[in-house]
Amino acid sequence: MKDSLQMSYRGNFFASVRDITAIRAIKTPVSLTRLAAQPRPLYPNVVRTHFGSLDFLSYKGANLPPNKEAYVLATKTAKLIQKSSHLISSPLTIVDVGTGSGIIAITLAAALHKANAATDRVIVATDISGLALEVADRNAQINQVRDIKFRQRDILAGIKQEFGTVDFIIWNPPFYESNDIPTKVRRANFIPEIAINGGQDSLSYYRSLFSQVSEVISDQGVIIVQVRSWKAEEVETIAKSFLRGASSAEIKGTRGQVLGLVIGNIKIVEMVEALGLNTFQKAGILVVT
Ligand SMILES: C[S@@+](CC[C@H](N)C(=O)[O-])C[C@H]1O[C@@H](n2cnc3c(N)ncnc32)[C@H](O)[C@@H]1O
């Protein structure tokens, strides 16, 4: 895999090295207000997005520039993982499916590291796109996050064979209707189709994920998916058609909208409410303490 990735990426390689140098030079403390900032163009084919102390580069045709919703979901998930680790036998196995820029896996790894979370953990980030994985790996280096295992996989294929059962599965899947992808989302074809096209009814990747999870998820485990608020009910119905008897809870975003669903083991799902992750968070960002 690595060889073909290097070859397909060669055209951008020198630009990327310059970009990383530039990122290091411009790294400055940021206030929460800047979190809402749109990705900033750095070079014609590269944008930089900045959340808290984390920087992410995105490349035209390779990955979706990370958005605030994914960042908020990742910080809330980090808190859920940290606070529920006593319910799960270690090491915890966490899989970020379709990592794209690496936003979820990198934010999780950085937050758990910052919180000195004592539990042993394995963090895996997958994507079907080799280019996206190359970008995610580079973003992990920029942010000095070293403990993520990147794998080129079709959703969860081969994960159980390599890592055993998984305790936390997180995915922000492609979720636009194929006939209705907003022009501003396409951003002049910056974003590859594979990152945004969710099929005719926008839900096909949720079906694919949930059809695979029962084989992979541990008894204590949960699945966390990013959703558009108005699709949350349909996604929950899909999830429960594959995971009969599973519990579920909503994670709310900065405006009180449903940002994500947590589905699976009741004890961990109950933690969502206990930690207040299902409520409106004014600042939108949880500091994991
Ligand atoms: C909406 S993007 C999310 C990217 C990133 N996790 C985020 O939140 O910004 C969906 C990602 O899923 C990946 N993807 C699409 N189909 C996939 C599949 N069958 N298996 C694994 N990843 C897939 C895409 O390449 C893309 O990176």
What are the defining features of this structure?
alpha/beta, three-stranded antiparallel β-sheet, 289 residues, globular, Rossmann fold, seven-stranded mixed β-sheet, binds S-adenosylmethionine
> What Rg do the Cα atoms give?
18 Å
* Oligomeric status: single chain
Span of the ends, CA to CA: 38 Å
Count of distinct strands = 10
- Provide the low-confidence segments as ranges: 1-15, 23-38, 282-289
Helix fraction, binned, reads 25-40%
What kind of sheet is the major sheet?
7 strands, mixed
What CATH calls the topology is Rossmann fold
Name of the level-1 CATH class: Alpha Beta
The CATH architecture assignment turns out to be 3-Layer(aba) Sandwich
Task: Assess the beta-strand content as a share of residues.
Answer: 15-25%
Ligand set: S-adenosylmethionine
How would you classify the helix and strand content by structural class?
alpha/beta
Could you characterize what this model shows?
The protein has 289 residues and is an alpha/beta fold. It has one domain (2-285): Vaccinia Virus protein VP39 (Rossmann fold, 3-Layer(aba) Sandwich), CATH 3.40.50.150. Helices cover 38% and strands 22% of the residues. The protein contains nine helices and ten strands. It has helices at 2-26, 68-84, 103-114, 130-142, 159-163, 183-186, 204-216, 232-242, 266-274; strands at 40-43, 46-51, 54-59, 92-97, 121-127, 148-152, 166-171, 217-226, 247-252, 258-264. The strands form two sheets. It has a seven-stranded mixed beta sheet, sandwiched between helices. Strands 1-2-3 form a three-stranded antiparallel beta sheet. The chain binds S-adenosylmethionine.
